[in-house]
Amino acid sequence: MPASPPGDERRKRRLALVGGSLGNLVEWYDWFVYASFAIYFADSFFPGDNPTTQLMNTAGIFAVGFLMRPVGGWILGRAADRHGRKSALTLTVTMMSVAALLIAVAPTYGQAGYFGALVLLLARLLQGMSIGGEYAASATYLTEASARNRRGLGSSFQYVSMTCGQLLGLGILITLQHTLTTAQLENWGWRIPFLVGALFAVVVFWLRRRLQETDAFKEETASAPGEEAHDDSTRGTLKALWHYRRQAGLVMALTLGGTVAYYTYTTYLTKYLVGSAGMEKTTATLVSFTALTLFAVLQPFAGMLSDRIGRRPLLITFAVGCTVGTYPIMTALGSASSYWSALGLSLLALVIVTGYTSINAAVKAELFPTRVRALGVALPYAIANALFGGTAEYVALWFKNSGHEKMFFWYVSGCALVSLVTYVLMPDTRNAALSRAEAEADGQREGEPERDRPAAAPAETAR
Known about the structure:
This protein is mostly helical. The protein has helices spanning 6-45, 51-83, 85-105, 109-112, 115-145, 151-179, 182-187, 192-209, 215-221, 238-242, 245-265, 269-275, 281-309, 312-334, 339-357, 360-366, 373-389, 392-401, 406-425, 436-441, 458-461.
């Protein structure tokens, strides 16, 4: 089969980049607006005069989403390995669209009693499953669809889109707060962002239907000349993943420090500036918005740097900076008295975190062979994220309520230290062969036993 012209190849890669990352934007937009607008719709679903109890009920349903992430990572990671990255990407955005629409049209307690809360719960279950599978499907797709010498750059757009999703949700929140009254927001205005999310998802669904499957997956499901047909019975299964349990452990360990740091300096930052530094809510929100915008801009540059010097230098820089720098940065943020001082410190922290966020998707995908890559990325990441990323804010508030707020800073540093040890001991994955064509370019044969292969592919030697 003749090779595609360079122009067609570039167009395909651009479409893959857009389609693979825009879904992330929609997923994280929907995830963010639930948490942001809960204060406006909590009393619509839970009766009573205590707003704290109402918020606790909505927060409990929010937490269910985190618990469903490993389930989604397992089911959708398996689907991506067995039926293709494209089909999994289409399925995740479909689930998120349905979930957003369910929330938008859910009846209130006054209309249908607790049936509305049940609809809300079902929607959050779908959102949790969807976002648990989206991370792995998009990480795998963006990495496999990128040119070999640009995988760091391609995968960096995962956190660009994730951050842009949060910024879009924050922008809509600010806009509605300035155009509608509080009563209007509580009565019907809170439904608007969920309707917008459902429409966004429909557009992304259409875009993802136009994507092409990655070469790596097509090679995995086809037989090379002279080879017998592949045995597909274990592809994408837990049995197959068990053979790569060391890589799965690496994913959990390298995720630990990164996910705690990310949630600390993104979702928890505004609450920390208001609750501990005593900053006005509007100022703290502006700090977060500006810092996140610049953070998103940084990701591709760090991804490109990793394509030149390798993944480990960036990961190690992040882990050292987070281990050593968290305590002084958070302490200084706790006494920040102006917008500029808080912004400077927040940016310093997010520059450090960029060493992880910009390339972690590529690193995880590069650790596994094609037949179990999506599941290998999805399940251990979702477990680590649910246990540590999703609980970061609760741990921080628990320490604060107990009068030992600074112990949380040491907790973040300790998590980063665990990841630092992992980064130092693991191989650099930049040169991993993700397809038969790449393996042949390295003088390898995709079908030969793992023990006979040369030590050029981290995806196999990490075992």
